[in-house]
Amino acid sequence: MAGMLQFSSRSLPRNVIRLTSRIWKTENCHVTVKARLYQGLAGRSWVCRIENNATRKRLKVQQNVHHLRTQQFQSTAGLYEEIQTVSAPHFAESVSEGDVKFQKEVGDAVAVDDVVLEIETDKTSVPVPAPASGIIVERLVPDGSPVKAGQALFKLKVTGVAPPKAAAKPVAAGKAAPPKPAAAPAPPTPAKPSAPGKPATAKPAAPAKAIIGTRSETRVKMNRMRQRIAQRLKEAQNTNAMLTTFNEVDMSHIIQFRKQHLEAFQKKYNQKFGFMSPFVKASAFALQDQPVVNAVISGSDIVYRDYIDISIAVATPKGLVVPVLRNVESMNFADIELEISALGNKARKGTLAVEEMDGGTFSISNGGVFGSLMGTPIINPPQSAILGMHGVFDRPIAVKGQVVIRPMMYVALTYDHRLIDGRDAVYFLRKIKDAVEDPRIMFLGL
């Protein structure tokens, strides 16, 4: 393969060294040409090197300068492959470090944007993708160790070639191959006794599934998110004067309302109409009526907010996260359902940004999706209250002197008694109950 370089600069002063670089891209190769110009009394002299990541050959280059002669020569350096050092990205202001969890091993081939590792912070997991296609040649930090922003993580040898994707095996048409007869079970092998002083270690994967009656114990490291959750819950207990008040909601009308509009809602928005949007909107309605529940204690001051940002508790395999719905007071049922669905999908995939969980003036936890009958939620600091939703169950209640069976839900409000009086908390929860049982009062502003 030959390359042609043409240089026509005549205005350079003497004894000036100039370094240039050009890149040619074709379908089969990626060529980089580096040239250094030595300008002296005898004329111009170029020394060039061509690097090709597709063919490991010494390449000829023809040099054509606006001078009396043209030179053609062969590079003196062979091809080399670039080694890139990948560092940790910058975290949000409230996050200082995280724990590394590698998903690729040394020697694995990766394509550009393949996730090589995740940095697990106390709020979310930050994926670190490969900046180019290549091979991982070295880990610069051990798996599970804490790292800070900008710290070097691993080295990548850039090859420009993505690993081949596994092709699906074609299924032959016609009769399926008969199943192979099951092999006879191998006789059990006696377990080897462990060396004295070295107890056998069990694999830390899924400890709950390892309960087989052997009376062994497995110790696994608590992930950073779980540690942070435990710390914040204990801080909430130590700081707030928490008190919980209860009520029950007759879900008959909202269930009928949901059934009546479910098909049209799903057809228009491609989203199911659930029970979260009525409770979220009812909470915003009640927070506007009782602004002290939306406030927070800051030192010796009380901070009142004229906006309503509601945190929705979402359970994930790594722990509980609370993405925030912003400006709920200006949202309708459809806006709330769509935003909850989008944030919930991000939470389950581990792609929530820290900014999507920061803030929040009030929280809602829905234990009813797991069949909870009743519970006392814990405040999400620095907020002052949290609403706990529970399961809907048919129960006998008295209506106008008659015992009837109605679908009922217990609701609980845990609040900071230092700021919120019992009267305000009871009125607030009653307002949610009334708005859910008859959503028309929200539109009338009653």
UniProtKB/TrEMBL annotation:
A matching Pfam family: Biotin_lipoyl
Compositionally biased tracts (Pro residues): 178-193
Pathway participation: Amino-acid degradation; L-lysine degradation via saccharopine pathway; glutaryl-CoA from L-lysine: step 6/6
Keywords: Acyltransferase, Lipoyl, Mitochondrion, Transferase, Transit peptide, Tricarboxylic acid cycle
Subcellular location: Mitochondrion
The keyword NAD belongs to this UniProt entry's keyword annotation: no
Region (Disordered) residue spans: 172-208
Transmembrane segments: none
Cofactor dependence: (R)-lipoate
Coiled-coil residue windows: none
Main location group: mitochondrion
GO biological process: tricarboxylic acid cycle
SUPFAM superfamilies recorded: CoA-dependent acyltransferases, Single hybrid motif
Lineage top rank: taxon: Eukaryota
Enzyme superclass (EC): transferase
Domain Lipoyl-binding positions: 83-157
MF GO annotations: dihydrolipoyllysine-residue succinyltransferase activity
Reported function: Dihydrolipoamide succinyltransferase (E2) component of the 2-oxoglutarate dehydrogenase complex. The 2-oxoglutarate dehydrogenase complex catalyzes the overall conversion of 2-oxoglutarate to succinyl-CoA and CO(2). The 2-oxoglutarate dehydrogenase complex is mainly active in the mitochondrion. A fraction of the 2-oxoglutarate dehydrogenase complex also localizes in the nucleus and is required for lysine succinylation of histones: associates with KAT2A on chromatin and provides succinyl-CoA to histone succinyltransferase KAT2A.
Family: Belongs to the 2-oxoacid dehydrogenase family.
Protein name (record): Dihydrolipoyllysine-residue succinyltransferase component of 2-oxoglutarate dehydrogenase complex, mitochondrial
Lineage, top ranks: Eukaryota, Metazoa, Ecdysozoa, Arthropoda, Hexapoda
